Amino acid sequence: MNILKVQSISKSFDGLQALEDVSFYVKSNEIVGIIGPNGAGKSTLFNVIGGFTKPDTGEIQFDGQDITGLAPHKIARQGMIKTFQLVKPFGSLTLKQNIMIPKLLKGLSISDSMLQSISILERFGLVGMADVFPNELPYALRRRLEIARAFASDPKILLLDEALAGLTQNELSDIMDILKQMRHDGITILMIEHVMAATMALCDRIVVLNFGKLIATGTPNEVTQNPMVIEAYLGKGH
Amino acid sequence: MNNLSLLTQSKTTLFAIVFWVTGSLYGAFGTNSIIQDVLIFTLIWTGVAISWNLTAGYAGRLSLGHAAYFGIGAYTSSILYMKFGISPWIGAAAGMFIAAFVGVLIEATTIRLLGIYYSLATFAIAELLGLMARGWTELTNGMAGLTLPFKASLIHMTFTNKTGYFFIALGFVLLCFTTTALIVNSRYGFYLKAQRDELVAAKALGIATNQICIVSGMISAALTALGGTIYAQYLLYIDPDIGFNWYISVQAALLCLIGGMGTLVGPIIGGILLVPLERVLHSLLGGSYGGLAPAIYGGLLIMIVLLMPKGIASMTSKIKTT
Amino acid sequence: MDMVAAIVVAGLLQGGIYALISIGLTLMFGVLRVVNFGHGDFLMVAMYLTFLSVKFFGFDSLAASIITVPLFFITGTILYHLIIKRTFTASDPLLAQVFATVGLSILLQNLTLLIAGADVRQNESQIITGSITMGDIRMESIKILILCSAFVLGILVSLFLYKTTLGKQMRAVAQNITAATLMGINVQRIYGWTFAISCAVIGLGGTLLSMTELSYPTVGLKFSLICFMTVVIGGLGSIRGAILGGLLIGVVEAGTSYLFGPIFSQAFVYVIFLAVLLLRPAGLFGQEGYLEAKAE
């Protein structure tokens, strides 16, 4: 069952074609990775899917609904939650309060949200810092907070933008465990990544972009052996 | 929150409470009308500052045009009173309603403007309304202003001594404070702060940021307008320079900046520290040295902004407010 | 037809004034996004200094620029280091700049009030006097001088920005502070120089302005608003924009004033300003303003 269908998405900015006729799908409960050299259009694609940018042509279907052109917060309410490459914690709120936001948005009372926030912090190993502010945390923990906050929204699909970047080996395996556990809980994950080894290990399927075009999809094995993909990253003659 | 910041934040709150309990006793029973005058001005500007703080400190929309709402409130009630004999209480409600409407219009149109562009737009709108007040003489009497009749009675919101005004102004501040506190401590307070800190992330989680900004702007506008009505009734006079003065916007912001933006007690502290100072300087140094008082005020302003950029109340707590 | 020509000419001449006094703000706000709400008050002080020079040194008003320009340059540098530089490290630099410069504005207004009194003043040049008449249209010589000065100054500043090293460094800082720093540019020094030059230009503008506009201690706000509007409408960071924007505003103002009266024409300009902010924040000729003004 396809939870996300991206159909013929094109987007240009001031004459530069950022995305050209990109189509792919994501099955329920999959982990799909989007890779490609810098400037391939991955972040633009995420922005279009999440509603932050309107595509010039094409359609996005989420859970059977056409969400093309919907406002980002409405798309989020439908269960698609996006995280950001540069983490964006709410600086004037403590960790606990950050996690409360998605709970409050679900309609829980302030006290219930607080309780559920604590249990999520526990699950993500952050409960000791519940009353700490994000700017007091090291970067890797802020990254974890970002994912925890997205998880607290009870998403159907999680859009992760380079969530594995800049992490040590230990931090990386922590996050990967968290993601695997989320998939086990029924969440679909779509992730933009540059950290190749982890991506190949984690993802069921990979989508490859280059110069705004989709040049390959398939399992990690298929994609790493695809000559076009190799050429995109390493140039001709490899 | 560590114990120290909780304590010091309580200190400023304590200071505010002590000041106003004393002040209220004086306002209720005191006889020195000069002191009562200072208290009334302090209350009015504090209320306006609290209202500004809602949209600027909490929602992050730094309006430099709140004078627009102040003027709308002042003129609406005054015009209704003078031309149709309508009680200023009803006029106040009408003013709040019109200001709320205008606030929604302004916030909705400028919702995508950020930073200085938003501030400049709100500034221009306030100037525009001031021009209207100057030009539409059939309605507003233009530069001559409106001199309100002195008919002392509760229903006319006019009093022979200052005590009545004091209580109205006090009620105004309590209304502004309670409204803000209720909003800030509700789930909407969370949403406001979240979208102020990170607009895009807030949207990505599902917060309807446009709506809550517009609504908080609307409430802020309505409360500011009430302040305008009370001011006009206190002076029994209003003109475009008094009602739509750029310095009203500046002062509201200043009180919050000094006291601590995005905190409940900040505007109150700012009001306590700045308004009496300004009035004292004005009365001591006005007249033959006209200009010295505001000059000192201006100089102080610069120094405070540079030395205490986060304001006093926020310096005493670890919460990052801006 | 003659009426139209007369109005357009009057508008251009007035617009020339707006253009001239806005060039300083283009550098500061347009290029570097530093907000100075005291811009108009700096102009006012320059105007008063011109009166002083005339009175005490017997200079012709024009010659007073020998005093005002260097003085403002030096003062600009001092003000930058004392005040503006410190706003960058505040938690909200914008607010800090707004309020520090508002404080400065209040200070300047009232010091001037104290020292010079509240009288309205105006000056005249002894050298450039009278007017030139073309057909039925009469143009005051001083306004023609100002219009020409606006163009000349605009060209000079543009040349400076595009041909000199310092100018190029300024533009680099305007476009990308991080990259500029990485390339070895001392950003603080650039900001300091920009502020100083901007003030010097204001000094010159004020001197010329004193010969055709009324001065009084509180006139600053009016000028500040005009300059901000000119810079935004013309296009942030664009000298050409400041000049053309000023001329456009002048003509629009003259036309609507003739048709509907002065208050309406002022209001109309505000409306155009708002429309530009909302619909095309880049202004007529600017580029940089566009992306940052609006949320996605």
Structure annotation, total helices of chain B: 15
CATH topology of chain B: ABC transporter involved in vitamin B12 uptake, BtuC
The quaternary organization reads as heterotrimer
Widest beta sheet: strand line-up of chain A: 6-7-8-3-9-10
CATH superfamily of the domain at 2-79 and 155-234 in chain A: P-loop containing nucleotide triphosphate hydrolases
Helical amount among residues of chain A, as a percent range? 25-40%
**Cross-sheet strand order for the largest sheet of chain B:** 1-2
Number of helices of chain A: 9
Short synopsis of the structure:
By secondary structure, chain A is α/β, with parallel strands linked by helices. Chain A has nine helices and ten strands.
Notes on the protein architecture:
The complex is a heterotrimer of chains A (238), B (322) and C (296). Chain A has a domain at 2-79 and 155-234: Rossmann fold. In chain A, 37% of the residues lie in helices and 26% in strands. Chain A has nine helices and ten strands. Chain A has helices spanning 42-49, 72-77, 95-105, 110-123, 139-152, 169-184, 196-202, 220-224, 227-234, and strands at 2-13, 16-27, 31-35, 57-62, 65-66, 80-82, 157-161, 188-192, 205-210, 213-218. Chain A has a six-stranded mixed sheet, sandwiched between helices. In chain A, strands 2-1-4-5 form a four-stranded antiparallel sheet, with helices on one face. Chain A is globular and about 55 Å long. Chain B has 15 helices and two strands. Chain B has one domain: ABC transporter involved in vitamin B12 uptake, BtuC (Orthogonal Bundle). Chain B has 322 residues and is mostly helical. In chain C, helix 1 (2-31) crosses helix 10, helix 3 crosses helix 8 (187-209) and helix 5 packs across helix 6. Chain C has a two-stranded antiparallel sheet. Chain C has one domain: ABC transporter involved in vitamin B12 uptake, BtuC (Orthogonal Bundle), CATH 1.10.3470. Chain C contains twelve helices and two strands. By secondary structure, chain C is mainly α. Helices cover 74% and strands 3% of the residues of chain C. At the B-C interface, helix 5, helix 12 and helix 14 of B face helix 3, helix 4, helix 9, helix 11 and helix 12 of C.
